[in-house]
Amino acid sequence: MKAKIRKLGVWIEETHEEAGRAIRPPTRKAVAAAVIENPFAGRYVDDLADLMDVGEELGKLLGERCVAALGIRPEQVQSYGKAAMVGENGELEHAAAILHPKLGAPLRKAVEHGAALVPSSKKRGGMGQDLDIPLGHKDAAFVRSHFDGVEIRFNDAPRANEIVVAVAVADSGRPLPRVGGLKAEDIEGKDGLR
Fold first, then answer.
1. In a domain, 194, yes or no
2. Is the pLDDT of residue 26 over 90?
3. What is the spatial distance between Cα 87 and Cα 158, in angstroms, rounded to a whole number?
4. What was the pLDDT predicted at 101?
5. What is the pLDDT of residue 189?
6. 31 contacts 66 by C-beta, under 8 angstroms
7. Which pLDDT band holds residue 65 (cuts at 50, 70, 90)?
8. Dist CA 2 CA 50 (whole Å)
9. Pick from 50, 87, 79, 49: which is nearest to 63 by CA?
10. Of the candidates 14, 51, 66, 84, which lies 20 to 30 Å from 105 by C-alpha distance?
C-alpha cells in the first residue's frame, strides 16, 4: 500500500538566543510531516499491515526531507523522534502501526546509524491540533542534553479520516544544557544507551 498523501509540510526551528545568551552555532531542529488518508478510519480491522508499510515509506521520505531541510550530511544528525496523530475516526493503534514496526529502519538509514530507540508519541486530535514530537540522541538514549521536543500543526489536519505523521531531527541538543549526565562527545553508540 502506498500512502495517500494530501499534504506535506517541512519546518525548521533555530534557536539563536536563550536566557539572554547567544547560541553559536544556533541549535536547529527540522520536522517533516505528512497528512495521509487513514484507510481504516471508522472501522475495526485486525490486520494493520498496510499501515505498517505506510510507516516504512514515510520513515524514508520524512527522514530524508528533514536532513535536506537542515542542509547537513546524514551523519551530522544528533537527535531524532517521531509522532502521529489520528483524526477522530481513527484509533491510537493506527498511529502505533505506522510508527513502530517499520518506520525506524528507513529513518535510521536517512540519518546514518541510530542505535537508540526513536522517541515517539501518538495522540488523537482534530484540525489545528498541535503535535509534539519528542527528541532524543540517535545513538545513546542516556544523553540528557538531547532530551527535547518540537511541535508542529496543520491548520486543516487531521480531518476525521486522516493521520498526521511527523519525523523530527536535530543537529544538536538543547541550548545551554546543564543537567549533567552522559555527554554527546563521550558516547560509545553501540547499545543505544551509552
1. no
2. yes
3. 5
4. 95
5. 81
6. yes
7. very high
8. 8
9. 79
10. 14
Q: In this structure, what CATH number is given to the domain that contains residue 83?
A: 3.30.1330.110
Domain count of the chain?
Answer: 1
Full DSSP string of 66-104: HHHHHT--GGG--EEEEEEEE-TTS-HHHHHHHHSSSSH
Residue at 192 is within a domain: no
Is the pLDDT score of 191 beyond 90?
no
116: its cell numbers: 537508540
* pTM of the entire predicted model: 0.96
Residue 140 in any domain: the answer is yes
Q: What is the pLDDT of residue 18?
A: 96
Place of cell 541538543: 173
pLDDT at 146: 97
Domain annotation covers residue 61:
yes
Cell of 80: 531524532
How far are the Cα atoms of 14, 96, 112, 173 from residue 138, in angstroms, in the given order? 19, 20, 10, 11
